[in-house]
């Protein structure tokens, strides 16, 4: 059987600081990440069987290795009798995405009913009572946004700690503030990006898990990374002291590299960073 993927590349599943990430990411080929714990799909390079059930989708930009599966996904959900998905796309690309979906609907003579959400930095979407999605600024060659998933907790204000529940309920009924909101940043993902994104979205440094591209690794590819607005591993080394993340999952490696070349390059990362890095590669 021939594989659809370059040798040693393809489906990946990693567990990063307790967060499961499954999918495929190969620069210029396809990227999609299932986040089963958040019931959300990041990116849409294609729509294989096991992502059709995902009703929340976050797309970072319009390059087709990140978006080609969108119409296919909508069509398959429709065919499978599933309700329309909610799909976040960068606000600056939303009209073009809507026009593309409309053309696909005319071609198929069906109505997908996709809930297209124009996402702008600072926007917040509640995914569950305890889970919120925030849109981050992106930096790439086309309009791009990133995404941050945070756990939301409501904690009793310190002055009320130790009081009986009935007393707290009375105070709440009187309109007093009894709880404060706490956000724990769980996973940040900027989409394809140049290193400028670290200045635009410093939240990236503080999420428990940073899922980030690292398209280029070899010294001879520094210029190429600049030209195409991608991360080169040297950009991470230059910021090694800034990453507070428990785990850093590196993705979107160029097809030019073999998996063993990727592992060798990452073994050269400085102490303190190297131990936290997980390459998004098959075992
Ligand atoms: Zn890409
Ligand atoms: Zn791109």
Describe the structure.
The protein has eight helices and 14 strands. By secondary structure, the protein is α/β, with parallel strands linked by helices. The strands form two sheets. A seven-stranded mixed β-sheet has the order 1-2-3-4-5-6-7. α3 links the parallel β6 (86-90) and β7. The longest helix is centred in the middle third of the chain and has 15 residues, at 94-108. The protein is globular, with a radius of gyration of 21 Å. Bound molecules: zinc ion (2 copies). Residues 61, 63, 140, 192 line the site of one zinc ion.
The computed structural class is: alpha/beta
Report mean pLDDT, rounded to a whole number: 95
Q: Nearest-angstrom radius of gyration? A: 21 Å
Give the distinct bound molecules.
zinc ion
Spatial order of the strands in the main sheet?
A: 1-2-3-4-5-6-7
């Amino acid at each position: 059987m021939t594989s659809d993927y370059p040798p040693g590349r393809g489906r990946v599943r990693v567990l990063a600081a307790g967060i499961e990430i499954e999918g495929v990411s190969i620069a210029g080929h396809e990227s999609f990440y299932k986040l089963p714990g958040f019931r959300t799909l990041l990116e849409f390079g294609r729509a294989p069987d096991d992502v059709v059930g995902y009703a929340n989708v976050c797309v970072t930009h319009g390059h087709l290795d990140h978006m080609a599966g969108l119409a296919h996904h909508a069509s398959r959900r429709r065919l499978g009798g599933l309700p329309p998905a909610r799909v976040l796309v960068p606000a600056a690309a939303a009209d073009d995405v809507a026009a593309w979906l409309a053309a696909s609907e005319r071609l198929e003579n069906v109505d997908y009913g996709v809930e297209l959400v124009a996402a702008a930095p600072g926007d917040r979407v509640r995914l569950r009572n305890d889970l919120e999605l925030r849109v981050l600024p992106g930096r790439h060659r086309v309009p791009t946004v990133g995404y941050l998933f945070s756990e939301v907790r409501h904690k009793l204000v310190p002055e009320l700690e130790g009081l009986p529940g009935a007393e707290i309920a009375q105070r709440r009924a009187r309109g007093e503030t009894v709880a404060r909101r706490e956000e724990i940043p769980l996973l940040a993902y900027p989409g394809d990006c140049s290193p400028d994104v670290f200045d635009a979205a410093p939240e990236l440094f503080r999420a428990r898990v940073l899922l980030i591209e690292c398209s280029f690794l070899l010294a001879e590819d520094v210029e190429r990374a600049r030209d195409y607005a991608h991360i080169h591993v040297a950009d991470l080394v230059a910021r090694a002291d800034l990453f507070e993340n428990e785990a850093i999952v590196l993705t979107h490696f160029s097809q030019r590299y073999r998996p063993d070349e990727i592992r060798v390059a990452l073994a050269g990362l400085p102490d303190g960073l190297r131990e936290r890095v997980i390459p998004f590669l098959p075992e």
